[in-house]
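User: Fold this; tokens only.

Assistant: Input:
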Amino acid sequence: MAPILTATIRHVEAAATDGRERGELAHELEQTAAAGPTWWQRRRGAKAGPVVAASATSLAGDYQLLAQELVATLTAAENDDQAAASGALDAPSPIEATAAGVGS
């Protein structure tokens, strides 16, 4: 049965538009937003760099949480598979079990 993930990706139109126009992913937009001047610095006349939606930071965080959940889910599934495989290797074969009188 497939696991149900709990992480959600919010709908952020401004960040989506910036990403399409600039050809950048959410984490790249986050870096651009962090490096640029704040809104109050732009208002005071600071030399404006590229203006990117501040919501890109939240969107990048959503994708990071999803990635962390996926990695944790895959790791748990691999550990379960390894435990099942090692348990199957330790179990006696059907011939050995019959010879020992197990299961009869």
